[in-house]
Amino acid sequence: MSRIGVAFDKARADGRAVLVGCMPAGFPTVEGSIAAMIAMVEAGVDVIEMEIPYSDPVMDGPVIQKASDIALAGGVRTADALRIVDTVAAATGAPVVTMTYWNPIEQYGVDSFARDLAAAGGTGLITPDLIPEEAGEWLAASEAHGLDRTFLVSPSSTDARLKMTAEHCRGFVYATAIMGVTGARSQTSEAAPILVSRLREVTDLPVGVGLGVGTGAQAGTVAGYADAVIVGSALIRCLLDAPDQAAGLTALRTLSAELAEGVRNPAR
Amino acid sequence: MSTDAAAPAGQLPDSAGHFGRFGGRFVPEALVAALDELDAAYRKAMTDEDFLAEFDALLRDYAGTPSLLYEARRLSAQIGARVLLKREDLNHTGAHKVRNVLGQALLTKRMGKRRVIAETGAGQHGVATATAAALFDLECVVYMGEVDTERQALNVARMRMLGATVVPVTTGSRTLKDAMNEAMRDWVANVDSTHYLIGTAAGPHPFPEMVRDFVRGIGVEARQQCLDLTGALPDAVAACVGGGSNALGIFHAFVPDTDVRLYGFEAGGEGVATGRHAASITGGSAGVLHGTRTYVLQNEDGQTVESHSISAGLDYPGVGPEHAWLHDSGRATYLPVDDDEAMAAFELLCRTEGIIPAIESSHALAGARKIAPQLAAELGREPVIVVNLSGRGDKDVHTAGAYFGILDKE
Predict the structure, then answer these.
(1) Residue numbers of A annotated as active site
(2) What are the structural domains, with CATH classification, of chain B?
(3) Is B188 within 8 Å of chain A by CB?
């Protein structure tokens, strides 16, 4: 079983959901992003989702776009991102899953990326713009190197596509809570619980819900029906809005702890 | 003309939108249902006589097609080839783009959607979309890079007059690719009510195939007009290539005519060697951008590199996947034309024929000028070249005036 599967089993035994926290590699700097991810785990984040920045992130809202631009302007490269996985996984022991758009993977070389991600201790890859129909090379590479595959499903996915997509996933399935891009919202989605229950009909894999979750209360709501709560923009904003790194890390720890509390108090 | 304008031809792409190793769908899952819906509506429309009749009538009565094929004798004498200009610049809204926009707007109505969004670089596609939205009573939002809203202020005003909302895009390089990102984000969020009216033969399946089929009337017309005028097919067909819809539009009917050479001229900007260009095939490499696999301007890590061209409409770091395939298969030849060459051709057409071309189309003219001597040598006679004059130059008067230093100080 993958390390991320262990995290899900442990959380399930504790009667709670897994908290997944996202951070772009190299934001605001390589060192800064490592410090941020370590701080998140120390404050209660179970799984790190490290986004490899991409110049044209069409599934991301303004916060992640801005963070990605800062990281890329700082010169972060795919090889740096893989080193960050290695460092964070070794320092925290927490599962580190990567997320990125398809072109950076294709240019690195699909099999080479899978090999190097596995060697760095990464658990798998979330692919926001890769659907299973186009994923032949990735299916083979992830098999060869023992990596998890997380494709996205959406409220607009048909039942047949939910089943097909879940069948191609390993580790967990990513359910996008709303029709839209990443970014914290004031209300949690009404579509998400429906989507998750439709998924339960077709798969036994754990289901993570992301998009729009930013507070402990929202995390508790989502934890009421999902196996993992995925938070990105709200955490990244802690660093974007802070006057300096120390203040940013403090805010990040505070929010991480609040979210960790939230997933331990699922609304049922 | 009749229903030929929209008749799908050829076996490519396959049912998943692949042209060999190019094309396909690299999109968030949230868009798949909408792309499937669009694909079904488009395939149904292509065999629906009512749809085809309505499309043909609009093209004829509203857009003013078939456009003329005009023999440019004074230009011909200057460049050593018999040049036939496909006058898409005379279409309503001033470019070939109206053909695609009318086709997609009709489909939008058929899908029961009430809102269209579009990206635009030079503003020509935005104006065409705003025009169709006015005609079909659709809400219209156009995303345009902030840099482009400044260099194409006239087209921004035109879109607003037509009732469209123009949203300046301030992310990334603030040009066409960023406008496309922003339109995709809007579409992901509003896909139930909204059709994304992509302006070129790029993007995820079925857009490259569908847009090609809506504009392929250009080549169908030009082929027959050339036969009528000269008694034979042309030796070569020349078009500019940004995303590549005007080029595919004129190429497609000629693809089976293997004696007809097809030339696509990419924007060489300040020269491909300088790195400041928009020549994705000549100076790029295979990758994924905006939902499709094609040639892309990118660095080693797959990050998109900013494109440069004096022509806002060609200033895009990708190209439609069918062009990538036509290049790989050798059926079409793609060559760069730099800013100075394009502007020299712009001036030449103004002075010899009294026609002010779009700077985009000036790349095709410059390309024809470049290949003429070689073609003449190969054939041992004056070659016949059909050039797609894809748009008129009114929108470029400011840019061209500044380039030639002929504007009075304000």
Answers:
(1) 49, 60
(2) 19-61+97-206 (3.40.50.1100), 64-94+215-404 (3.40.50.1100)
(3) yes
